[in-house]
Write a structure and sequence with these properties.
Layout: H1 4-21, H2 28-41, H3 44-53, H4 55-63, H5 72-89, H6 98-117, H7 127-146, H8 156-166, H9 170-181, H10 211-232, H11 237-247, H12 255-262, H13 266-295
């Protein structure tokens, strides 16, 4: 059911279209006269009459793009921008009818608007992507209709024919087909139509830590670093050297390397390391227990 504003908008559009269709057509001589008056003298009355006469052309071109889900009123407005661009660039002396020249500008303006607003995810404005976006569905329907089948899955044969016709890679055809088959959905939209309370956003899971967890992690990390520094003071010189070389560096030294440096056997380094780790563990536990006692 349409809202009141939608109904009024539709009526306004219908009234506008009806008036535009009743506007008189221009003969070639009058068309050129008006175009020259606007270009050379900036005669706004001439521009208004020229635009008014060719509004029906804007409506005709806009109607071809109604299948993209955008309001027809918006398409007509964008088409008028193209019509104004055509009026400012038109050269009557080239012996070309204004309608023929303006059609390209109207279509280009509408297509640019569709590319900007068809999806939240911006579409590339490259010429190949633009041609693929606006021609894929019609080419696919034509090819599949010729073969007597209309399949929701893009077949390899149809995909290859489209890629050849538009001179684009097959991968681009597949990617564009997937985009055209889908559509934007609000995260606040209900998952089912049965009136349930669940929205799509309810199924989004954020794997990152919460601000509270981040603060606690950084605070606890700083506290552990301080405790480790204090615990390291309880080790002798060789024990500290072994712990730093083995556990506090990105590329820890081997037992053999430390044995050569300290002039002891590899087994002796292992014993010193084991004893140092036991001391550190004991010191860290005692520091934690002392902290908990003070907090209590």
């Amino acid at each position: 059911m349409l809202h009141r504003d939608d109904t009024l908008t539709q009526k306004d559009n219908q009234r506008f279209i009806a008036n535009a269709m009743n506007a008189p057509l221009l003969e070639r001589e009058e068309e050129y006269k008006l175009a020259n008056a606007w270009r050379d003298k900036h005669d706004e009355k001439a521009l208004h009459k020229l635009i008014q006469a060719y509004t029906r052309l804007v409506i005709s071109v806009s109607s071809r793009f109604r299948g993209y889900g955008l309001p027809i009123g918006d398409l007509i407005q964008e088409g008028h921008i193209g019509l104004l661009q055509a009026a400012s660039r038109f050269e009557p002396e080239r012996n070309l009818r204004f309608a023929t020249y303006a059609t390209w500008w109207i279509r280009a303006s509408i297509q640019d608007y569709i590319l900007r607003n068809w999806s939240i995810v911006r579409m590339s404005s490259a010429a190949t992507q633009k041609a693929l976006f606006f021609n894929l569905r019609s080419l696919r329907a034509r090819i599949e209709g010729r073969e007597g089948k209309l399949d929701s899955t893009l077949s390899y044969k149809v995909r290859d024919e489209i890629a050849t016709a538009l001179k684009v890679p097959v991968s681009e055809v597949e990617r564009m087909d997937q985009r055209l088959m889908g559509h934007d959905v609000s995260l606040h939209a209900p998952v089912n139509d049965d009136g349930g309370a669940a929205n799509w956003q309810d199924f989004l899971e954020d794997d990152s830590v919460t601000p509270e967890e981040d603060v606690m992690t950084r605070f606890d990390g700083a506290a552990r670093v301080a405790q480790l520094k204090n615990a390291m003071q309880g080790l002798d010189t060789r024990e500290r050297a072994i712990i730093k070389a083995r556990h506090l560096r990105d590329n820890g030294a081997t037992l053999e390397e430390l044995g050569e440096k300290l002039h002891v056997s590899k087994e002796r380094v292992r014993q010193l390391e084991s004893r140092a780790l036991a001391k550190l563990k004991k010191a860290m536990i005692e520091a934690t227990e002392k902290k908990q006692t003070v907090a209590a």
